[in-house]
Design a protein that fits this description.
It holds the Pfam family MLTR_LBD. One of its GO terms (molecular function) is DNA binding. It comes from Ktedonosporobacter rubrisoli. The chain has about 280 residues and is of the alpha+beta class. The protein folds into two domains: about 90 residues, lambda repressor-like DNA-binding domains (434 Repressor (Amino-terminal Domain), Orthogonal Bundle); about 170 residues, Beta-Lactamase, CATH 3.30.450.180. The protein is about 45% helix and about 10% strand. Strand 3 and strand 4 form a beta hairpin. The chain starts with a helix and ends in a 10-residue tail after the last helix.
């Protein structure tokens, strides 16, 4: 979408939302001489606390800039829901609004069933804090028994940097750890300054000399393109390609699947591991 089309789409969106708001919804008398449905431009501008001329130009698709604060006022005045508010920000500023998402700590039965249907492929769901909140049996058999861990211990970064077993099980632990830091920074940049973010970074810096050294480098990475090499204590080397899927109906969540690299013995080893019938209380990881 080019700039002209973006401004046109913003103008159309604002106009349609304004026309859906009745005067009674905002405490105004209905009046008898309204030529168009909904609120007048000057009424909406007054409610949002912006100038009528400025708002008119915005709704006409003119090339003007709207701050996040003004967009919040417009979203409130237009009574936009969560999805509509996000759409407004994308059209006006080409970015999502920066606000704390509600912390998701569990998944619904349907998503858990999808994890289980991944079969021998390790699959897990993480929230925006990188806390692992759901996983399948294959994840426990390959990586660790997350059923026995606290929420902090299941945080992907915390697990990688503070669990001593990870340094020997990852063939290239340093490369993987630095990559995870860069990926975490890129995917959580909108949460910088939030309490949970600051606490996690501070606690990791205090607990891990490597994290304390690498975090200030400000490396950023948005994709995980290289295979990962993991030494399993029972079946030996496993080689995975990581695939990440965004949960459309819950933007707080991502599903991470460890997919066996074709041409390796990983798939057959996962099948053997699954068939071995490891108990729920297995502690080999």
């Amino acid at each position: 979408m080019n700039e002209k089309e973006r401004r046109k789409a913003l103008a159309q969106f604002l106009r349609t939302r304004r026309e859906h708001i009745s005067p009674s919804q905002v405490g105004l008398p209905p009046g008898t001489r309204r030529r168009t449905p909904g609120l007048r431009r000057e009424e909406l501008a007054s409610i949002a606390g912006v100038g009528t001329d400025w708002y008119t130009r915005l709704e006409q698709g003119r090339d003007i800039t709207a701050s996040a604060q003004i967009l919040e006022s417009l979203a409130h005045a237009l009574k936009l829901d969560r999805d509509e508010r996000a759409h407004l920000f994308v059209l006006a500023r080409k970015q999502l609004p920066v606000d704390p998402l509600p912390l998701t700590q569990s998944v619904d039965p349907t998503l858990q069933l999808i994890l289980e249907r991944m079969g021998t492929y390790p699959a897990a769901v993480v929230n925006h804090r990188w806390d692992m909140i759901a996983w399948n049996q294959a994840t426990r058999q390959v990586y660790a028994d997350f059923n026995t861990m606290s929420a902090r211990e299941r945080n992907v970064l915390w697990f990688l940097f503070t669990d001593p077993r990870q340094r020997t099980q990852w063939l290239n632990w340093e490369e993987e750890a630095r990559s995870k830091i860069a990926f975490f920074r890129a995917s959580t940049q909108r949460y910088i300054g939030e309490t949970w973010f600051t606490e996690l970074v501070n606690d990791l810096s205090a607990s891990s000399p490597e994290f304390r050294e690498w975090w200030p480098r400000h490396d950023v990475q948005r994709t995980h393109v290289k295979p990962i090499y993991f030494n399993h204590p029972l079946v030996g080397l496993l080689i995975f390609q990581i695939k990440i899927f965004h949960i459309v109906d819950d933007p707080d969540l991502q599903m991470i699947v460890s997919t066996p690299v074709p041409g390796t013995e990983t798939a057959s080893k996962l099948t053997a591991l699954s068939a071995s019938g490891l108990r729920e209380d297995s502690t080999f990881c």
